[in-house]
Amino acid sequence: MTTPQHCPGFETFKNLKSFICKCPKCGEQKEIFSDEFDKSHVCGKCDEPIDFRQCTLDGTA
Predict the structure, then answer these.
(1) Can you give the residue ranges of every domain in the chain?
(2) Number of C-alpha atoms within 13 angstroms, CB side, residue 20?
(3) Contacts of 7 (CB under 8 A, 6+ apart)
(4) Is the pTM of this model over 0.85?
(5) CA distances (Å), origin 40, targets 10, 18, 46, 54
């Protein structure tokens, strides 16, 4: 038996990208991953809906 080099499920998530968008109402930042674009998101601070399709890319690391 050999020890796996990665945790189970690694292949499914290795190409995910993360994005940060500011709430249009209060400016709070919210992070989502590229597999979450089809889900609805709300600001954790003011509960305003956040439409990640309206976000702009400010920079990458």
Answers:
(1) 16-54
(2) 7
(3) none
(4) no
(5) 25, 16, 15, 13
| Contact yes or no for 32/18 (Cβ under 8 A) | yes
Residue type (1 letter), 35: D
Q: How far apart are CA 55 and CA 37, in angstroms?
A: 12
Reference 23, options 2, 52, 3, 57; nearest CA is 52
Contact 53, 24 (CB under 8 A): no
CATH class of 16-54: mainly beta
- For 6-44, the pLDDT digits (tens) are 676 666 667 778 888 888 899 899 888 888 878 888 999
